[in-house]
Amino acid sequence: MMSTARQRGGFTSVELLLVLALGAVVIGGAVVSYGSIVRSQPRVSSFITVPLGSTRMQHFYGSSNSTLDTASAPQFGGLSQAEELREQFLADVMSATAVFCLPRDDSNAYKPSIIAYNPLQHAELDTPQKFRAHLVSIGAVTAAQYRDYRNPLNDGVSVPQNASIFVLGFSKYAGYLKVLSLYDIDVIRFTGAGQPQGFHASVKRYADPVGSTTPSTLTYAGGYDVFYPPSVFNASNPAQWATDGFSPLFVTFERAVRLALTEAPSTIQRFKRAAERSFYLIWWPDPCARHLGPVTNTLPSSDPRQAYNQNAGRTSFMFTVPMFPAL
């Protein structure tokens, strides 16, 4: 009986050696399989020196440089940065009192932490267009800084390639609106001789400087960028990829009660779908996309999806954001 008890008290050396041998085989197989998977995945093959220019670099990152080394798409390493920025954006929106998306053509130099506003003197800010008009009326920006624009494919004008998203929060300063954060989305096309052919796309967040206790200019607080090569292999001929691009960056769905106001052109009416609050659909460029080549869109002009359906499947970064999140 004592001999049986001793035998059941542990493993023999032969059993241990057998387990170790089997473990080595399993681990070795896993390593070989993982290596094959990694080698078969698309990898970033190069970094592109993008000539953004000193003005854009200053507006984008507060840098005095004129160029930026950017990873070429698909940029899987930048996915974690984009995901982190997505979480921060959603957190900012949840704390916001209002969100205003303003389209623009050039880079954004306006990054205030507060904006003068007196509800007894100034007009109600219930649309992005009125918010833009207010900024112009108080002398904060020129009329050319942001486009007076109301959704794509309505008036025949070109769709703005860039956008700024003002996330407003509760203010402790009387007579001022607080800018909780500001997000700039820029998609820049390069076709010039000697320039890298393709698009530099970036999403950047600006917030109060760390430790700031008084109103000041918002500073760069994180983001991501990626360089998209042309969809056509012959990158030296820009005419062959003239339809590449990423737009719109957002659309605004107005309240359905505004259907009572008939406006021209009639395509504006199709965006009046919101039951209670106006809201946005917002898209960010996806670092994992290979290029910004065109996607077929066959929806009729009466359907609001005609304005943005081409973005379906092109990016995993899409947001539904109310214009007035907090009440």
Q: Which key terms come to mind for this protein?
A:
about 325 residues, alpha+beta, 4-stranded mixed beta sheet, 5 helices
Entry summary:
The protein has five helices and twelve strands. With 327 residues, it is of the alpha+beta class. Strands 3, 4, 5, 6, 7 and 8 form a six-stranded antiparallel β-sheet that branches. It has a four-stranded mixed β-sheet with strand order 10-9-11-12, with no helix packed on it.
Characterization of this structure:
- The protein is α+β, with helices and mostly antiparallel strands.
- The protein has one domain.
- It has helices spanning 2-7, 13-40, 54-61, 79-94, 128-137, and strands at residues 47-50, 68-71, 98-104, 114-116, 162-169, 176-190, 198-207, 219-228, 250-255, 272-274, 279-283, 318-322.
- Strands 3, 4, 5, 6, 7 and 8 form a six-stranded antiparallel sheet that branches.
What is the element layout, followed by pairings?
Elements: H1 2-7, H2 13-40, E1 47-50, H3 54-61, E2 68-71, H4 79-94, E3 98-104, E4 114-116, H5 128-137, E5 162-169, E6 176-190, E7 198-207, E8 219-228, E9 250-255, E10 272-274, E11 279-283, E12 318-322
Parallel strand pairs: 9-10
Antiparallel strand pairs: 1-2, 3-5, 4-6, 5-6, 6-7, 7-8, 9-11, 11-12
SSE succession: HHEHEHEEHEEEEEEEE
The Rg value, from CA coordinates, equals 26 Å
Q: Tell me, what's the shape?
A: globular
Per DSSP, the total helix count is 5
Outline the biggest β-sheet.
6 strands, antiparallel
Q: Determine the strand fraction and express it as a percent band.
A: 15-25%
The structural class is alpha+beta
Q: What's the overall average pLDDT, rounded?
A: 88
Tally of distinct domains? 1
N-to-C CA distance: 78 Å
- Number of DSSP strand runs: 12
Low-confidence stretches: 36-45
Share of helix among residues?
10-25%
